[in-house]
Amino acid sequence: MAEHTGPATLPVLMYHSVSTVPAGPLAELAVSQRRLREQLAALVTAGYRLVGLSDALDLVSGGFTDPVVAVTFDDGYADFLDALPILRAVGAGATLYPVVGQLGGEPDWLGEQAGLFGRLLDWPELDEVAAAGIEIGCHGLTHRPLDVLPRGQVDEELRAARERLTERYGRRLRSFCYPHGYQDTAVRAAVARHGYDNACVVGRRLYTVGADRFAVPRLMPAPDQSGAQVVDLVATGGPVWSARLRTMAQPGWRLVRRQVFRASGRMLT
Hints:
- The protein has helices at 33-45, 53-61, 80-90, 123-131, 151-169, 185-193, 227-236, 240-264; strands spanning 9-10, 12-15, 17-18, 30-31, 49-51, 68-75, 95-98, 135-136, 175-177, 198-203, 207-208, 216-218.
- By secondary structure, it is of the alpha/beta class.
- It has one domain (9-264): Glycoside hydrolase/deacetylase (TIM Barrel, Alpha-Beta Barrel).
- The strands form 4 sheets. Strands 2, 5, 6, 7 and 8 form a 5-stranded parallel sheet that branches.
- Helix 2 (53-61) links the parallel strand 5 and strand 6.
- The chain is globular and about 45 Å long.
- It starts with 8 loop residues before the first strand and ends in a 5-residue tail after the last helix.
């Protein structure tokens, strides 16, 4: 096996809505057009190449030595159309993860906050995104956390979503994004079994090149972070303690969520 000569880590950025929303518990999921442009332009000026996740993994595993940042957007909000000219202007690629069974509707997994970011892209709009060269990944069929579902339901979520996208676009889907970031060994194996070759979590840390491609962690720029601060974020990975605390809490929280689901059918996120 040839020796790996590329970078040791890969920063992967996670965005959701491109909008401005009032302060509140979900405000961190929205970034304004102005701030998105500033953050991405600062990275390009700093010498980073901005691409989608599958392209980024290919580059760093293939020995590409220039600095690379992967850019991802979750959920598939209609306001992603506002991101397209920004991405084009700075020469950036990206991966978009739509919730396939919800296209054209509202993100009902947000409960009472479902209207905060507006509706999701519809199929013609997703066609426009795909035609612009954005990698279309998959965020599941309904955005239900896969790690608490019975195996048969996990397989149906993965199968149905993948079939709809491959029938529409006629090309292989490579990248998956776990709803809510929740996954375990069985879910990762199921995603691989359904033909994906990479998948991302939340993580809030840098990806170590050569580590599990089905648990790629990401960094989430804050909506008020300047371009310079985001350049620092991708260089350092952010606070290590935050990522470690979240990792330590996951098994216990998964047990609680699984018990509630089995007892009542309710999905805790």
